[in-house]
């Protein structure tokens, strides 16, 4: 399988999409409009996250659980194909050349039960999500680490095809104003936080997953209706450690792309960068930390939602 080159300029720059005030990658507005007719199944299992909140990690756990811990079978197909990214498609010129539909149209051909993922905020997800009520695992990450990880992720993107902040300071300001892709993180989080008591929704924190991965695997297994043995849960936990996923060509995105080299370090960048809690401390200035603390206090006051930052 030939890798896609993330560093080469291939497409004509396009304006970022905006839907209901939410900034989205170019062309996503077309997908969101078409998703209004997307068929959702009651036996679907969805992972929904804000970007860089633990998506790839969680989808791999869910995929392993839905395969009843058959890791040999899991490793036969890349996670991208086991867990399709609903709103992400190849750019329109390539789809036209290869006569390929959007990803959301391809998922209709996947047999049940499907495991699907999305970064869309709750109000832009397919309307059937709220009538068919599939199981949804929603993951949040403390916003300080989230912003840092999201910045590094965006640095991998092709600047010729979309508008991207050049520096961390610029990206930080966009995050404070809720102008990064997929909208304000606090609105994204709170939409699902307020639904956390609904039986088909499981809300997790990235920091809790780091603290006790084995407990998280068991929690997800129970939520998805599986009664797996302790031995199977242990095997899934080991399979889904950051170190093992990073070196597993079927469990991370690095094996699909020719990733660019970091201009400062000379190292090749990675979709799975550090996966740690507290990395924000090596990036935030005192002023940025104070600004983020003030924003968190303003947006989360009275909601009961809190985060660990270390």
From TrEMBL:
<dbReference type="InterPro" id="IPR000863">
    <property type="entry name" value="Sulfotransferase_dom"/>
</dbReference>
<dbReference type="GO" id="GO:0008146">
    <property type="term" value="F:sulfotransferase activity"/>
</dbReference>
<dbReference type="Pfam" id="PF00685">
    <property type="entry name" value="Sulfotransfer_1"/>
</dbReference>
<protein>
    <recommendedName>
        <fullName>Sulfotransferase domain-containing protein</fullName>
    </recommendedName>
</protein>
<comment type="similarity">
    <text>Belongs to the sulfotransferase 1 family.</text>
</comment>
<keyword id="KW-0808">Transferase</keyword>
<feature type="domain" description="Sulfotransferase">
    <location>
        <begin position="43"/>
        <end position="304"/>
    </location>
</feature>
<dbReference type="InterPro" id="IPR027417">
    <property type="entry name" value="P-loop_NTPase"/>
</dbReference>
